[in-house]
């Protein structure tokens, strides 16, 4: 099934209500890597995602933003992998991470979902944990705020200044793969 293409999927929630929220940092990072390499997203009806095809150092890279809610991302990731014939080892899922400070980014292969429902659904749909996770730190919620409420809140004005740097760092890690 596999070819050497890389499938990069930024996780987030669809619609203007969720733009610039912490949960949508995966969409933001996917946008950055796409713009950096001259790509443009277009609707891909067969997979229920917005998709851009770019080239990085001679390698085909498919960048996608699912049009489903975060917790239902797995079906879209699997549909993309099947359609573009990409094995799990060549998939990178970009997501928000509460257990990392704002601004930290980390790429790892495999591992747990750390309570992240988008990763949990992706692992279930793919039937394996052996795909790359690109974690973008958003920090813990202040005080006693529920994590679910925190991730759906927009970034504070001061945090928005960090967002382009976080997305650039994420794009740099994708380019290194």
Automatic annotation (TrEMBL):
Q: Where is the active site?
A: 23 (proton acceptor)
Q: What functional role does this protein have?
A: Hydrolyzes ribosome-free peptidyl-tRNAs (with 1 or more amino acids incorporated), which drop off the ribosome during protein synthesis, or as a result of ribosome stalling.
Q: What is its EC number?
A: 3.1.1.29
Q: Identify the CDD domains for this entry.
A: PTH
Q: Where is this site: Stabilizes the basic form of H active site to accept a proton?
A: 96
User: Protein name, please?
Assistant: Peptidyl-tRNA hydrolase
Q: Which UniProt keyword terms apply here? A: Cytoplasm, Hydrolase, RNA-binding, tRNA-binding
Q: Which InterPro entries match?
A: Pept_tRNA_hydro, Pept_tRNA_hydro_CS, Pept_tRNA_hydro_sf
Catalysed conversion reaction: an N-acyl-L-alpha-aminoacyl-tRNA + H2O = an N-acyl-L-amino acid + a tRNA + H(+)
Annotated site location: Discriminates between blocked and unblocked aminoacyl-tRNA: 13
One GO MF term? tRNA binding
